[in-house]
Amino acid sequence: MNPTTPAWLIGEVRRAKRGEGRDRIEETSGLLAQLGLPTVCDTARCPNRGECFSHHTATFLILGEVCTRTCAFCAVKHGRPEGPPAPDEPVRLASAVSKLGLAHVVVTSVTRDDLPDGGARHYAAVVNELHRLCPGVRVEVLAPDFLGSEESLITVLKSGPDILAHNVETVPRLYRAVRRGADYARSLTLLRQAKSLTPDIVVKSGFMLGLGETADEIESVLHDLAAAGCDMVTIGQYLAPSLAHTPVARYASREEFNRWKEKAIGMGFKSAASGPLVRSSYKAPFFFGELL
Ligand code: SF4
C-alpha cells in the first residue's frame, strides 16, 4: 500500500507550484517557448517549476527530449531519440540565458547512448557558447554517465564548466529496480575522475529518499560520494510523476532531511542541500554560495 502524502508536504508542493505569480512564470515559459528550448522543469514535471520560473530560473534540457534509458522514477520520455543534436541549440540557449539575465545556469540533458560520444561535444559547444555570449556566467553541467567514457568526460571538462554534477539518484541496491542501464560504480568513477582531472572544479551529486532505501544505505552513499571528491550533495524526496512510475515507498520527515544535511557536512561536504523539494538544480546559485 502506498503511504499517504503528509499534509505539510502537500502544502509545500502547492506553494512551489504557485511560485510568485502566474505573470512571472509565463514570462519565463514564453521566452523558452519562443527560442524552442525545453527544460527538465517541464519534461520531468518538477514540483518547483512555478517557484523557479517565477524567479526566471530554469534548467535547460539539451540533446532532445527523448532519453535512451528507462529509469522507473523519471517522467522524461524514453525511446529512440529524434536525431543528431541541433547545431543551433548552443546559441539559442546562450541567448535565453542572456535575456533572462542569469548569473548561474544549469544545463542537463537526456541520456544519449545512441551518440558515439554520448553528446559530450554538444555539451562542450553549449558551455563554450555560454562563455562567449554571457561572459561571467557561472555554468553548472548536470551530465549523464557517458557510459563510462573518460574521453567524453574530458571533452566536457575542457570546455570549462564551473560545476560538474552527476547524480547517483539512489542507493546501489535499487539500481536494478529503478535505474536500469546505469551503474553505481560507474557513476562514482565519473565523479572521482572529474575531481582528479580538474581539482578546481566543483563536483556535485545527489539522490532521492523514498524509493525504499535504508538509513545504513543512505549513509554509505554519502561516504562514497565524499570519498569520490564531491564538494556538494543534494538530497530530496522522490515524488512519483504518475501512477505508471515507481510508487513512493515512504515520505521522509523534515527532521530526517535535517539530520542527513548535518551528517553530510560532518563528512566534509562543503554544501549539502537536503529537503523534500530539493532537486539537483533547486536554488543552485544559493547552495553554490555556501562554498564561498
Ligand atoms: S528545481 Fe531545477 S528542475 Fe525543478 S523547476 Fe527548479 S530549476 Fe527546474
Q: Beta-strand level of the residues, as a percent range?
A: 5-15%
Q: Level of helix content?
A: 40-55%
- Global morphology: globular
Radius of gyration, whole Å: 18 Å
CATH architecture: Alpha-Beta Barrel
Strand order, biggest sheet?
1-4-5-6-7-8-9
Total number of helices: 12
Oligomer: single chain
Number of strands: 9
The domain count comes to 1
Can you walk me through this structure?
With 292 residues, the protein is α/β, with parallel strands linked by helices. The protein has one domain: TIM Barrel, CATH 3.20.20.70. Helix content is 41%, strand content 14%. The chain has 12 helices and 9 strands. The longest helix has 14 residues, at 120-133. The N and C termini lie far apart (45 Å).
Question: Secondary structure elements and their pairing?
Answer:
Elements: H1 7-18, H2 22-34, H3 40-43, H4 49-54, E1 59-62, E2 66-67, E3 77-78, H5 89-100, E4 104-109, H6 120-133, E5 138-142, H7 150-158, E6 163-165, H8 175-178, H9 184-197, E7 202-209, H10 215-227, E8 232-237, H11 254-267, E9 271-274, H12 284-289
Bound molecules: iron/sulfur cluster.
Please describe the structure with a list of short key phrases separated by commas or semicolons.
292 residues, alpha/beta, TIM Barrel, 9 strands, binds iron/sulfur cluster
Short structural description:
This protein is α/β, with parallel strands linked by helices and 292 residues long.
